[in-house]
UniProtKB/TrEMBL annotation:
Protein name: NagC family transcriptional regulator
Annotated InterPro entries: ATPase_NBD (IPR043129), ROK (IPR000600), ROK_cs (IPR049874), WH-like_DNA-bd_sf (IPR036388), WH_DNA-bd_sf (IPR036390)
Keyword tRNA-binding part of the UniProt annotation: no
Keywords: Glycosidase, Hydrolase, Transferase
Name of one Pfam family that matches: ROK
GO molecular function: hydrolase activity, acting on glycosyl bonds; N-acylmannosamine kinase activity
Region (Disordered): 1-20
Recorded family membership: Belongs to the ROK (NagC/XylR) family.
SUPFAM superfamilies with a match to the protein in the record: Actin-like ATPase domain, Winged helix' DNA-binding domain
PROSITE patterns given in the database record: ROK
EC number: 2.7.1.60, 3.2.1.183
Length: 374
C-alpha cells in the first residue's frame, strides 16, 4: 500500500539504498501502520512489516526520541514469556500549524496534534472582496505559533485552486495566479511548509477519521466546487497538478460565464454560492426542485470519472441544508442510470459527516506525512 509517496519497501528490499534512506522508509512504514489510533508491540510491528527485530528496535527508538511515538502499556498476554510494550502515535509533544484559506470572509488557523486534531483556533476577518496577501497569512501563522504548547514541526496551508509544489497556479476564488505560498512562509519561519489543494486536504480527514476507504472520489461543494481522487491510498494529482477540477467541467455550453473563461461550468450552476442565490429567489415550495436539479447536474458531471475509474465510493461535503437527502438522491438516481452495468460495482454517493475542521485536520495530516519523508 502506498500513501502520499510512501511505500512498503523493507530493509530486505532496499539493500542498495543508503542507511538513511532505509531508516526513513522503515519509519514511514511503521508510522503508517500505527496511524491514526492503532497500538502494536515491537514484535507485532515486525510481523506486519517483515522488518527485522533490530530494524524495528532502531527505528522505534528514534521515533520515541523525536516525539512521534509513545509507549502506552503492556500488550495482552499471548502465553508464556514477557508481554511486549504497546506503541502508538504520540499526540502530546509535537504540533502542526494548519491554515484553511477556503472561507470567503475569514482565514482560519489551528494548532493541531499529530492526528490533526485542533487544540487551539485563531481567525483573521477579511473585508469583502479584499485580496489575501502572503503577509496576512504569515501574521495568522505567527499568532498560531504563539498559541502552541509544543514543538511545531511544520506548517500546512490548504488553498482552493490548482496547487503545484507550494505554488497556487490558479485560484478563481482568491484571484491568485502563480502565487508562491511555500517559499516566503518557509523562509520567514524556518519550518517545513506544505501547501495542498483544499479538497485533497479535506479528503484525508474523510479517509482517516470518516468513512472513506483507500479508493474514493471526494467532492467539496461550498463557495466553489472542488474534488479529489484517492486510488489505492494515493491521491491522484495529475500531470499539471489539476486533477479533480470537477467544478470547471462544462455541463451546459450555453450556461453562465465562469471566471475560468468557459460557459456552464458545474461551479456556476451548483456551487454553494450559486444555490443560495437560486434558493433565496424562490418560494419554499420550489426549493426541493432546485436541489433535485442540482443533484442531477452533479450526477451528470460524476458519470464519466466514475465510469473511467471504476469508482464505487463518492463522498460529498457541503452545508447540510444543500447537501441533503433530496440533493444526494437526485445525484444517485442520475448516476445509476448513467453508469449501471453488469461489470461495474454499484457506486454509492454519500454525504460527508466530518465536521467544520475537516480542512485544517486534513492539511495537518499532510504535514505529518511530509515530515516523515524528510
Amino acid at each position: 500500500m502506498s500513501y502520499l509517496g510512501l511505500n512498503t519497501t523493507t530493509d530486505d528490499h532496499a539493500a542498495k539504498a543508503s542507511p538513511a534512506d532505509v531508516r526513513r522508509k522503515n519509519r514511514q512504514l511503521i508510522f503508517r501502520l500505527l496511524f491514526p489510533t492503532n497500538q502494536y508491540s515491537r514484535a507485532e510491528l515486525g510481523r506486519r512489516t517483515g522488518l527485522s527485530r533490530v530494524a524495528v528496535s532502531d527505528v522505534v527508538g528514534r521515533m520515541l526520541e523525536e516525539g512521534l511515538l509513545r509507549e502506552t502499556g503492556q500488550a495482552p498476554s499471548g502465553g508464556k514469556g514477557k508481554r511486549g510494550t504497546l506503541l502508538s502515535i504520540d499526540i502530546d509533544r509535537l504540533r502542526i500549524i494548519s491554515i484553511d484559506l477556503t472561507q470567503e470572509h475569514l482565514l482560519h488557523g489551528a494548532v493541531t496534534n499529530l492526528l490533526g486534531q485542533p487544540l487551539r483556533h485563531a481567525e483573521v476577518t477579511l473585508n469583502t472582496g479584499s485580496f489575501v496577501s502572503v503577509d496576512v497569512i504569515i501574521e495568522l501563522i505567527e499568532k498560531m505559533l504563539g498559541m502552541s504548547d509544543g514543538e511545531v514541526i511544520g506548517i500546512g496551508v490548504a488553498s482552493p485552486g490548482v496547487v503545484d509544489n507550494g505554488v497556487v497556479r490558479s485560484s478563481t476564488m482568491r484571484g491568485w495566479n502563480n502565487l508562491d505560498l511555500s517559499t516566503p512562509i518557509a523562509e520567514h519561519f524556518g519550518l517545513e511548509v506544505n501547501v495542498s489543494n483544499d479538497a485533497t486536504a479535506a479528503m484525508l480527514t474523510e479517509r482517516f477519521f470518516g468513512q472513506g476507504g483507500p479508493n474514493m472520489l471526494f467532492v467539496r461543494i461550498e463557495r466553489g466546487i472542488g474534488s479529489a481522487i484517492l486510488l489505492s491510498d494515493t491521491p491522484v494529482i495529475g500531470e499539471l497538478h489539476a486533477a479533480g477540477e470537477l467544478g470547471h467541467i462544462s455541463i451546459d455550453l450555453d450556461g453562465p460565464l465562469c471566471p475560468c473563461g468557459k460557459h456552464g461550468c458545474l461551479e456556476t450552476m451548483i456551487s454553494g454560492t450559486a444555490l443560495k442565490k437560486q434558493l433565496s429567489a424562490a418560494d419554499v415550495e420550489q426549493h426541493q426542485g432546485i436541489l433535485a436539479r442540482a443533484g442531477r447536474y452533479l450526477g451528470q458531471a460524476l458519470a464519466m470519472p466514475v465510469g473511467l475509474l471504476d469508482m464505487a465510493d463518492v463522498c460529498v461535503y457541503g452545508q447540510p441544508n444543500i447537501i441533503n437527502a433530496t440533493f444526494i438522491g437526485a445525484a444517485q438516481q442520475y448516476l445509476d442510470a448513467a453508469t449501471s452495468s453488469s461489470f461495474h460495482k454499484h457506486t454509492v454517493i454519500r454525504r460527508c459527516e466530518c465536521g467544520p475542521d475537516i480542512t485544517v485536520q486534513g492539511e495537518a495530516i499532510a504535514v505529518v506525512f511530509q515530515h516523515l519523508a524528510k
